[in-house]
Design brief:
Layout: H1 2-37, E1 49-57, E2 60-70, E3 77-78, E4 84-85, E5 88-96, E6 100-107, H2 118-123, E7 125-135, E8 138-146, E9 153-160, E10 166-170, H3 171-185
């Protein structure tokens, strides 16, 4: 009988130790999984983008080429939530008849440093440049310099004249210019 009781006690202790050890392993596995899930956030990037279109200015046909590429060599932008974004480089190239190049430049957000505050520039990315319109001044492109994944942006315009000269304007500048032009006409 003593043998049977000691045998039962031995089996009970073995089962209890095995149960405690199994719980410890599961608990450690959960900790490892949680640790791995809380790793550093993935960098977010916009897709590479290309656009080509024909534009007529003063009865001359121009070809506009816009290429956006994530700038892996550019500083990263981190928002207030800790999300990390890769900034972009955008190349604008314009040719006219016989494929004569009149303009070719690669822009980064630092190309527009004189139009925005350093605080805004530090948290913004160069999201896109798109053809906007033609005017007597030239071919106008709208620039979107913005906080990532928000509607907050600084509207800037690039105007290229028929000789390939570039002018940069903000929306405020163009409104002031329009106001001055209207005032001088009256």
């Amino acid at each position: 009988m003593k043998r049977r009781v000691s045998h039962i006690i031995l089996v009970t202790i073995t089962v209890l130790l095995a149960a405690c050890t199994a719980n410890t392993r599961k608990h450690n596995d959960k900790q490892v999984l949680i640790y791995m899930d809380n790793g550093s956030p993935e960098e977010q990037r916009l897709e590479a983008f290309q656009d080509a279109q024909s534009i007529s200015l003063n009865n001359i046909e121009y070809n506009s080429y816009i290429t956006r590429t994530p700038g892996d060599s550019l500083p990263r932008v981190t928002d207030k939530d800790g999300n990390v974004y890769i900034d972009n480089e955008i190349t604008l190239r314009i040719t006219r008849e016989n494929n004569i190049q009149i303009f070719n430049r690669t822009f980064t957000k630092n190309s527009f440093v004189s139009f925005v505050s350093s605080e805004f520039l530090q948290e913004a990315i160069l999201e896109r440049i798109v053809y906007n319109k033609t005017s007597t001044d030239g071919i106008e492109y709208a620039v979107s310099l913005c906080y990532p994944q928000t509607d907050l942006y600084m509207p800037i315009f690039i105007i290229i004249d028929s000789y390939g000269n570039m002018t940069l304007q903000t929306e405020e500048t163009t409104e002031e210019d329009e106001h001055e032009n209207t005032a001088s006409q009256t």
